[in-house]
Amino acid sequence: MATVLEKSTKERLLSVVDDLEVLSRELIEMLALSRSQKLPQPGEDTQVPRCAVILELLVQRDREFLQLMEVAQQQGKVHQEMQLLEKEVEKRDSDIQQLQKQLKEAEHILATAVYQAKEKLKSIDKARKGSISSEEIIKYAHRISASNAVCAPLNWVPGDPRRPYPTDLEMRSGMLGHMANLPTNGVNGHLPGDALAAGRLPDVLTPHYPWQSSDVSVGMLPPHHGNDFGLEPPGHNKENEDDVEAMSTDSSSSSSDSD
Amino acid sequence: MLWLSKEQARNRFQSELEFIQCLANPNYLNFLAQRGFLRERSFINYLKYLLYWKEPEYAKFLKYPHCLHMLELLQYEHFRKELVNAQCTKFIDEQQLLHWQHYSRKRTRLQQALAEQQPPQQQQAPPHANAAAK
């Protein structure tokens, strides 16, 4: 806070001490001189006032000195307090740093926890989206097992015509098979499949096998998709009818020859 | 050309349901391959379109779930090429049957094991299907 222009207390004290030294030396010199001279001299008149001046100056300087000493004492006290306060400040600083570290740790832990919680929520959402009622699953499981579609019947032997896929017979008696049985020139030279696609064929279905459809599927519709995959619809069904007898599902026979 | 009536859509649903399940039959696959259907671009696109049957709302109508696996395999050109081979389809057929019988055979073995553990008075004749186990 002290500006650079102000002299420090130490300097002032020292300068005052110096002054005191000088003044007292002068005084003593003068007194010594006057003593040694013993004769009143014409200049003596001037000496007395000179002594007085020096004395005054001396006294003044002494006063100044005392004042400065007091100031110095106070400054010393202030300095001590400052040191105490600095120590306190250091202590507080270290406390703050400690708290900062702990805060950072806590933040890190919380961030991890929040992240994991979010991940959990995501997976819960995902699970909920894909959830299917257990009843439906059991129904479906029953459906595919009871018909021996996924598990062979316990009394199955080679030669048993049952298979994990629809056999010739089943395929022929389905809707596709029946479509193939219709007149092959169809309407306007189109194949029966095209006619079906155009919606001009009657509904000839009476599914004999549950794999073809069911009353359950009445509400079900295929995803909306135009016939734009350049597809000739069940054109192959026509050949299906011709060669389906040649296709054998008997595991012991060799592969089918067509044509 | 879009489907305009529910009737048409229902017919289409049924025909696609039947067709996709036919794919579970390796002999039918061989049949399709030998006639070159599996090489046609439009047919390949159709097979890709049929993948919607994997969704649970549609899959629940499938009685022969093997067809879904076959459908997935059919998406690969290599598989489609191999299906022309009669030996390949025969192999597939055999493996499919063995897989089909796997669970029953496991059950029979368990029953046998149980029967052997039982005291002599309660011994039962091993199930008839044991003869089929290979």
UniProtKB/TrEMBL annotation, chain A:
Residues 82-116 form a coiled coil. The keyword Transmembrane does not apply. InterPro entries: Mediator_Med4 (IPR019258). One of its GO terms (biological process) is regulation of transcription by RNA polymerase II. Keywords: Activator, Coiled coil, Nucleus, Transcription, Transcription regulation. GO terms for molecular function: transcription coregulator activity. It holds the Pfam family Med4. It is found in: Nucleus. It comes from the Eukaryota. Residues 216-259 are annotated as: Disordered. One of its GO terms (cellular component) is core mediator complex. Residues 248-259 have a biased composition (Low complexity). Component of the Mediator complex. Component of the Mediator complex, a coactivator involved in the regulated transcription of nearly all RNA polymerase II-dependent genes. Mediator functions as a bridge to convey information from gene-specific regulatory proteins to the basal RNA polymerase II transcription machinery. Mediator is recruited to promoters by direct interactions with regulatory proteins and serves as a scaffold for the assembly of a functional preinitiation complex with RNA polymerase II and the general transcription factors. Belongs to the Mediator complex subunit 4 family. This is Mediator of RNA polymerase II transcription subunit 4. The lineage of its organism: Eukaryota, Metazoa, Chordata, Craniata, Vertebrata. The gene is MED4.
UniProtKB/TrEMBL annotation, chain B:
Gene3D superfamilies: Mediator of RNA polymerase II, submodule Med31 (Soh1). Its main location: nucleus. Residues 111-134 are annotated as: Disordered. It comes from the Eukaryota. InterPro entries: Med31_sf (IPR038089), Mediator_Med31 (IPR008831). Belongs to the Mediator complex subunit 31 family. This is Mediator of RNA polymerase II transcription subunit 31. It comes from Gasterosteus aculeatus aculeatus (three-spined stickleback).
